[in-house]
Design goal:
Radius of gyration: 34 Å
Order of helices and strands: HHHHH
Shape: rod-shaped
Length: 178
């Protein structure tokens, strides 16, 4: 198709204002117009519409309430884990009583280990909550962080409990019998 086939082409009126030079700011109200040969022949596509379930930052609306709910559950879980660690010596004593092993006397390392475990549970929750809130404030997804914190907390709980239980030679000898 040639230019004569399209019909007469309208040229924009010449702008009386001077064009800005390289490195110079454009005069107020000046806007660049592409030359006629570079102008699109069709209307450009409209900008993509934002998803109806997303907030302005591109984060889904469900992320914030889910993150906060998971943080609340995490606080309850950290409290429960700390109470499990507090009750561990009593649970081992109950096991001693049921198996007629005598009286449980915890090793010297058990009490500091259990305190360390409780402090660790609190720190894991605080770090998880802090980073989650920081991500929420920045408008980023954060729901996965309480889930990661829960997994780390669970691993820490089992490691501390295992270390406390394996420090007892009577239990080790009892469970190693054939």
């Amino acid at each position: 198709m040639t230019a004569s086939d399209e019909g007469p082409r309208e040229t924009p009126p010449e702008d009386p204002r001077p064009r800005p030079q390289f490195g110079e700011l454009a005069p107020e109200g000046w806007s660049w117009q592409p030359p006629p040969e570079q102008r699109p022949r069709h209307n450009p596509p409209p900008p993509p519409a934002s998803r109806p379930a997303a907030s302005p930052g591109g984060v889904p609306r469900w992320d914030r309430p889910l993150t906060l709910a998971l943080l609340i559950l995490g606080l309850l879980g950290a409290t429960f884990a700390a109470s499990v660690l507090i009750a561990l010596p009593d649970a081992v004593q109950l096991l001693y009583t049921q198996q007629n092993l005598g009286t449980y006397v915890p090793a010297a390392s058990v009490a500091p280990l259990l305190v360390l475990g409780m402090v660790l549970q609190g720190l894991i929750w605080l770090v998880t909550a802090g980073v989650s809130v920081w991500l929420l404030v920045r408008g980023r997804r954060a729901f996965y962080l309480p889930l990661v914190g829960a997994a780390v907390s669970l691993v820490a709980l089992f490691v501390v409990m295992s270390l406390a239980i394996t420090s007892d030679p009577t239990l080790l000898e009892f469970y190693s019998r054939p």
